[in-house]
Design goal:
The protein contains 18 helices and 6 strands. It is α/β, with parallel strands linked by helices and about 375 residues long.
């Protein structure tokens, strides 16, 4: 039976006399019918709602129903709700990772087939790995491909300074998503799911983890739950058991860096050699850092009124990026000749062909003889 999942939700909501849930899943059903070209049935359902005299649905609109609950003290929203068009989000990840994500999406999109056969559908996914590698982008992609709004928790609203309020906020958020066709996205998950045996944490925060686990248990077969963390080692062991799918998203490979650089710099004229050099220079960068670096390059090209990106510009742009993006004084690098020589030796250690002596002499604006002498003086160093 097509649309079995939505029909089951509507029956359940009707038996519970939950008009909010009836309205939301009716809207989802109408949308699915229209996407399949069944406008006749979709319009009939719309007329039923419109002509209803007693049902509270006719006085409510979808936007109001999807308004996030708020913290009772601060009045900050507990979540951010967004819809993503199917072709508005793209992924640049390892092929195996994308295959796993597509498998998860396929499960979500065909959940009604399992419901029809009485099979429980496990919808929980944990994304973990270094920051800036595309975990949030993956959640947006899943939202876009399933056509479900992404309800992303707001840590500043969810975590309250008032005793007991954080647990109440978690329950309010889960009650909210349980009544709506959506995906719950628990970003920065470690902020609320830390290990309960952490001696530095207060009893209140340990109770928060218990509340979180109980709510995930109650909802994971009803609403897809996606969590993302940069610090998986901080998660409570019981949290890991709540997720049927666990997926590590790591730093981009050389192939992925090349794709990102070509995408971000597609409006800038440059030859293949220069872009290959950028791919080498960004080894160890995450996707977000590559985007920032490419934006810096584009900005300088435009402000400098240059016609194209040349290899002679790359060292200066790299030093500018490193100076601006350093996380502290200990990471700050200078614009000195000595520092540039160390960077040049690091790039050459990664790829001698891309960073030949001739190329490096152009990058550093010095003779090949002087360059060769200076490089031979410096100890081995690798550019990250």
């Amino acid at each position: 039976m097509e649309n079995a999942a939505e029909v089951m939700k509507l029956i359940e909501a009707g038996l519970q006399e939950d008009s909010t849930k009836v309205f939301n899943y009716t809207q989802l059903l109408i949308g699915k019918l229209e996407s399949k070209g069944d406008d006749k049935v979709a319009n009939r359902i719309k007329r039923v709602i419109k002509n209803s005299k007693n049902l509270a649905l006719k006085t409510k609109c979808y936007e109001q129903m999807m308004k996030s609950p708020v913290d009772t003290e601060s009045r900050l929203p507990l979540a951010e709700i967004k819809n993503y068009e199917k072709d508005s989000v793209f992924l640049t990840l390892d092929r195996q990772v994308i295959d796993h994500i597509d498998e998860y999406i396929n499960l979500m999109n065909n959940a009604e087939n399992f419901v029809d056969k009485g099979i429980k559908v496990n919808r929980s996914l944990l994304l973990f790995g270094p920051p800036g590698t595309g975990k949030t982008q993956a959640a947006k992609y899943i939202s876009a491909q399933t056509g479900l709004p992404l309800v992303t928790i707001r840590i500043d609203g969810l975590v309250s300074s008032y005793l007991g309020s954080t647990s109440k906020n978690i329950r309010a958020l889960f009650d909210f998503v349980e009544k709506r066709p959506c995906i719950l996205f628990l970003d920065e998950f470690d902020a609320i799911a830390k290990m309960r045996d952490d001696s530095n944490e207060l009893g209140e925060l340990k109770r928060v983890v218990n509340t979180l686990l109980q709510n995930i248990d109650s909802i994971e077969s009803i609403v897809p739950v996606i969590a993302a963390t940069n610090h998986e080692h901080l998660l409570d062991s019981a949290v890991w058991r709540r997720f049927d799918y666990k997926l590590k998203i790591d730093l981009p490979t050389k192939h992925q860096r090349d794709y990102l650089i070509n995408s971000y710099l597609q409006s800038i004229k440059s030859d293949k050699k220069v872009r290959n050099m950028l791919t080498v220079m960004t080894k160890g960068f995450n996707g977000a850092e590559i985007e920032i670096f490419c934006n810096l390059i584009k900005t300088n090209i435009i402000l400098g009124k240059k016609k194209q990106l040349d290899e002679s510009d790359l060292m200066n742009y790299f030093v500018k990026y490193k100076t601006r993006s350093c996380k502290g004084r200990e990471e700050q690098i200078s614009d000195s000749e000595e520092n540039k020589i160390l960077l040049a030796k690091g790039f050459r250690s990664i790829d001698e062909k891309a960073f030949s002596y001739r190329t490096l002499s152009k990058m550093l604006n010095m003779s090949m003889g002087k360059l060769s002498h200076l490089l031979s003086e410096k100890g081995e160093i690798h550019a990250e």
